[in-house]
Amino acid sequence: MAAAADYRAGTEDYRDYLRRLQPGDRLLLEPGDYRQGLPLSNLSGHAGQPIVIEAADSAAPPRFIARPRANTVSLVNVRHLVLRHLQLDGGNLPVDAVKAEGHSRYADFITLEHLFIHDHAASQQNVGISTKCPAFGWVVRNNRIERVGTGMYFGDADGSDPFVGGVIEGNRITHTLGYNLQIKHQKFRSSEYADRYDTVIRYNVFSKQDALPGPQARPNVLLGHVPLTGVGSEDRYLVYGNLFLHNPSEALLQVEGRVAVYDNVFINGSGDAIRIQPHNDVPRDMDIFSNTVLASGTGIQVRQAEGAAYRQRVVANVVAAVTPLRGGEAAHNLTLDYQPDWLDVAVAELTPRLLASQPSRRLPDGLVRELAAYPGWQGASRPGANVAPALLRTLDAAQP
């Protein structure tokens, strides 16, 4: 096996290096404006030896400028690939910034880090990061995405092309026409991925604070169900430590399937915070706990399909809303009246402010032990007490 190599390239010659990249190689891109896109096809690194394409100087990231009729970063049949410290400027052309293309057979173990994606907002259909083929083991970390049609869109509208075992963390997604993040429902899963996988969504900022109501209104985040039977049917989404901010006409989070939602902060001065409801199927077993919610509409709403046998537990949340809780198996929650003045409180101070006037209420030891099995949750003596540290990690991780 040839030794891994480092290559340096600039705006004129960088495409000459793309097909020669082997496991462990790095392509270091000099500062400048790159106008011919980044088409990556039939490239495979190895576990522990990915192919890396990144800025030669992280303080001066190369700027890829969108071109008509071509997605800027195009992924086709690639594995173990890392892209980091790049700027993707859409110029509001009707293209995507990063796309695993629909004619690709796979795009596995892709890591996207420290990308600045902006101005892909010709329509809601233009996406910052999108997959339209089976995608396994993605890590999408510490990216800034703003002024786009949709921030991230994983999967396909018909439930094909599953997104499996991903980690989405430390991103800041703002100023989207539609979703900040959508992961589509999954109809089936290849036997190649027969184990159970969690997709982790943590320490992100999802904001539609300046969005306008209208036909393009969407929740900040929408999570569809995993396969209903067979391979993948036991998979879960773990959603924790995130900050959800404002939406003019939809909820901040809408989910179905198998989900755990905990240690998040939800702030919506224009409506609802969390909606658990049928979309392409029904809500299945899920836990919603240790969140802080401030909403001018409904704080946490659970709509279960009639006759369904699944459990949706709503436990140990702090909810200040016009209608704090509706539906679900609720226990040990602290509910308060909605106070619009609290919208102006510093986010990291919100949970302590809500708890300040309330007597301490210890959770049952058995419940604490059960919830402590979830990653990132270390137990709490009273509802919501673990939210503030998680939020501080979110704000630190999401700094541009």
Percent in strands: 35-45%
Average residue-wise pLDDT: 90
Pick out the low-confidence regions: none
CATH architecture descriptor text: 3 Solenoid
- Helix amount, in percent? under 10%
Task: Characterize the structure shown.
The protein has 400 residues and is mostly beta strands. It has a single domain (52-360, 381-397), classed as Pectate Lyase C-like, CATH 2.160.20. It is built from three helices and 35 strands. Helix 1 runs antiparallel to helix 3. The longest helix is centred in the last third of the chain and has 11 residues, at 387-397. The mean pLDDT is 90.
Quick rundown:
With 400 residues, the protein is mostly beta strands. Helices cover 7% and strands 40% of the residues.
Please describe the topology of this protein.
Elements: E1 6-9, E2 26-29, E3 33-34, E4 38-44, E5 51-55, E6 63-65, E7 73-84, E8 87-89, E9 98-100, E10 107-113, E11 116-120, E12 127-131, E13 135-136, E14 139-141, E15 144-148, E16 150-154, E17 163-164, E18 167-169, E19 172-176, E20 181-183, E21 198-202, E22 205-207, E23 221-223, E24 236-240, E25 243-245, E26 253-255, E27 257-262, E28 265-268, E29 274-276, E30 283-289, E31 292-302, E32 312-315, E33 318-326, E34 329-331, E35 334-336, H1 347-356, H2 365-371, H3 387-397
Parallel strand pairs: 1-2, 2-5, 3-6, 4-7, 5-7, 6-8, 7-9, 7-10, 8-11, 9-12, 10-14, 11-15, 12-16, 13-17, 14-18, 15-19, 16-20, 18-21, 19-22, 20-23, 21-24, 22-25, 23-26, 24-27, 25-28, 26-29, 27-30, 28-31, 29-31, 30-32, 31-33, 32-34, 33-35
Helix pairs in contact: 1-3
